[in-house]
Amino acid sequence: MISKWATTKWGVDGIGMLFQTISDARLLIAVAEAPSFAQAGRRLGMPPATVTRRIAAMEDHSRVKLFERSTRAVRPTEAGLVLLDHARRLVAEADSAEMSMETLRDTPRGWIRISAPVMLGETLLGPIIGAFLSDHPECDVFLDLSNAPVDLVAEGFDVAVRVGPVGEGDLVARKLGTAGAALYRNARSKADPLAAISELEGLPCGLLRSAETRKNSLTIADPDGQLHHVSVKPRLIGINAQAMLDIALATDLVVVLPRMVAYPAVTRGTLRCELRDCTAQLSDVSLVFPSKRLMRPIVRQLVDHLAANLPPLLKKYEYPET
């Protein structure tokens, strides 16, 4: 609710003067919705020091404090909430105007914000995004690689590549393929290769999963697709596939790794696949975006580009050891 104080203090002209550019309004929204200046900066691709400096400039200009800061959180003051309401309306109007103008342009252009998991982004996305930028010189990309779930609408992302559940809400999902994981061991290991799934029982293993999931069971799909639940002895649990690979190469552990991450080491002969016809984990890979109807032309072209180029790579890594 907008107070009478806000209307008399600033008015429309005052609000316009506080926001020197529309990016100031976006910055205010990001800070209000994030738990810290640093998190807001990451969402906008901006150093935390820049966020702090620009918010301070707005506070100096308005001569009021916009945010209460503590070691735990940042929250808007009453004045900050008033300005936040104006900022959201300004950004909505600006985005609407930009979308209207861009629809009329022959050349797709503008910034695209993409979110993707670290492993898939580092392994597959680089050349695909690079080719898109080369074909679209008027387009710029902000690529955020993170294993943390993002709220596309709230955090301003145009499209996300997701491995596993796509989430709920008014999102459009487009399945591209699957990403699988398998069991691997250091090729120098003197242990005999596993001959059956049952040999995993009680075996020291490295598991690719979050720390919160500390179950001692491992689910393996055999070549016929039948699932087997095996009790193992987890000596390593992690979510960073590259780190898990490095540890596998330095130990004698049987480690669950994404096939696309393990492939180069298998090709070099430093890693071997155990039970190569079995799958330790299989997840859908999908493109997710807020809406087709309001999608900017350049975003639509990127979605089509990803949909054309990611599936062949995902297919390549389904069973690369065979």
Automatic annotation (TrEMBL):
One of its GO terms (biological process) is DNA-templated transcription. Belongs to the LysR transcriptional regulatory family. InterPro entries: LysR-type_TF_proteobact-type (IPR058163), LysR_HTH_N (IPR000847), LysR_subst-bd (IPR005119), WH-like_DNA-bd_sf (IPR036388), WH_DNA-bd_sf (IPR036390). Residues 20-77 form the HTH lysR-type domain. This is HTH-type transcriptional regulator DmlR. GO terms for molecular function: DNA-binding transcription factor activity; sequence-specific DNA binding. Keywords: DNA-binding, Transcription, Transcription regulation. SUPFAM superfamilies: Periplasmic binding protein-like II, Winged helix' DNA-binding domain. Coiled coil: none annotated. It comes from the Bacteria. The keyword Glycosyltransferase does not apply.
